Amino acid sequence: MELKREHIFISEQDQDLFGKGVHYDIYKKLGAHPSVDDKGNPGFYFAVWAPFAKAVSVVGEFNEWDTERNPMNRLDILGIWEAFIPNVDEGMLYKFYIIRNDGRPVYKADPYAEMAELRPGNASKTFISGRFDWTDQEWLRQRERKDMTKEPMAIYEVHIGSWMRHPREDEEGFYNYREFADRLVEYLQEMRYTHVELMGIAEHPFDGSWGYQVTGYYAPTSRYGNPDDFRYLVNKLHENGIGVILDWVPAHFPRDEYGLADFDGTALYEYADPRKGEHPDWGTKIFDYGKSEVKNFLIANAIYWIREFHVDGLRVDAVASMLYLDYGKQSGQWIPNKDGGNKNLEAIEFFKHLNSVVLGMFHGTMMIAEESTAWPKVTAPPEDDGLGFSFKWNMGWMHDFCDYMKLDPYFRKDNHYKMTFAMSYNAAENYILVLSHDEVVHLKCSMLNKMPGGTEEKYANLRAGYAFMMTHAGKKLLFMGQDFAQEREWSEERELDWFLLADPKHAQMKAFFGELLRIYRDYKCLWESDNSNEGFQWINADDTEKSLYSFIRKDSTGKNCLAVVINFTPMQREDYRMGLPVKTECTLVLNSDDRRFGGSGVELPERLKTEKEEWDGLPYSVGFTLPPFGAVVYRFDMPEKKKSAKKPASKKETRKLEETGTEAVAEKTDSKKKEDAKAQTRDREKADSSDKAKTADRGKASEKTKDLKAGASLGAKH
To answer: Does residue 261 sit in the same domain as residue 338?
Structure first.
């Protein structure tokens, strides 16, 4: 579809809004856009923000990279440079040739480019957007009406380049966005995931960074096709009822000479003082969150992905590194804030601004924080002094869960409360339980090989662990390959070991996780009241000697319930009894020991009637055989409460009730404060090990980025 070109220019109003940090469409003006001149001649309009440059020109394939042929005109007051160049076609390589104040030249890629050259080249590419025919309007209409805290979310985290590849030896064999879309949709529908989270979509130079060192914030990586190919992927997923979340990295950027670092000869995008503007361990630059134009660059970028590509949410990487001025730094490597503390006050205000704008403009979308400390009110609204995110990754749960599951069952009784601790702070935030890519790389083992014991015990342990995760309060995320028990650690250099599915054990694990996803989506009690204590009730959280956990999940009515019990030892419990709060009949929903899942085949009754025998502090109970490493789920209904007419209380009785209630509230508040304090201390301690590991990973990526060779193309040479 050929688009009619408009005459694009930057007005005084554009500059005013950009200077205030509130020009949310700035990406439609800065960068390279198809346009016409005053006489109607077609070409491209180029604009770049470089206020401290002495001179700027556009170089590219259209002018043989001649630095003098297409000089740009400077617009005061902000220092934006512009140029219209006729006869520029789509798909041409270009860069900005910038003369710094000291006279030294540098070639820079376009910060707002919609497309980039395939690495190892690093030039920008002209692209004409607006031609894609979207067919996901119904999805967007429904999304606008949703509150995702009350919807099911089972997220499949995936890295496109290593999910599946073509079997070609003479090239990388990447699936392009369109091929990937067709195959991925088939898999996600079979498994019944609700969302996919895509790693490494924004352009980046080094595969080993996994996309967390971005050089092209507005360009879907050219490894898998062009921007319209990426639109096809999102559209295809939406047509098939699957939401799309992107990893987004506003925390830092690499030092590559052609990128954002020292853009116009000064620290334009980063803080000028290296104690505030550099990550010493990662070897990267930190955005200056106090500069209006930089905040505008990032906020407009978040809007760009949601508006122009219809994505449903952004998972914001490394939030903790933005919030703390001393993150990953030793004494003398950081500067306190104006109050003498370690909080980055500018980053805090940036998050409040970002989340208010994005979630205000796009109802039903999500902003998700990967925040690894106990920072309070991450998902509280800015008007309540919160950061305004929709969800927070529950990193504390992830570390506790993995630490516990790795233990020999004999030692689990001494670590029992690792698995119950998360519920003590569950209502503090809107959480997502994650088993992400970070947990299956760099000698951490795959999820299967974290498990203790021999082969059969590993699989049984993993089934029990996954059942615990999928029935626990909180939304869910699992990294690709772990649902069929990938054996090797993940590597971006190869595809998943799909051949394992020829082995019955792996096929059975895939079937089991698929069944968990089906149960999760079918039963509202597993997702409707995640962040409310009304949706979760322990039956027995204290059976340390037997390493048993039992609990009830309730829907918003309190009527439709699931009772869950999980045995984390190899001992079969012949006479197991589980307490229940009401007289009812239970129906079997899941037995992880079923032979179709690879279990030993302990049979359980399809239906059970409660007996009037008090157990677990509850008036009724049911008895059955609990399999070794078994997860058992029964469905039951709570009877509706009958309304009874009560005699109005006397004034004396009312006063007594109010006094008692006030004392109870005060006692409960004190208890909650103590629990929150413990939770914050423990989460902060747990963050240390996670952050050190991530620091090492990113440091490796940064070192490898420096060693990239220049590409063969003319654009790469510049």
So the answer is: yes
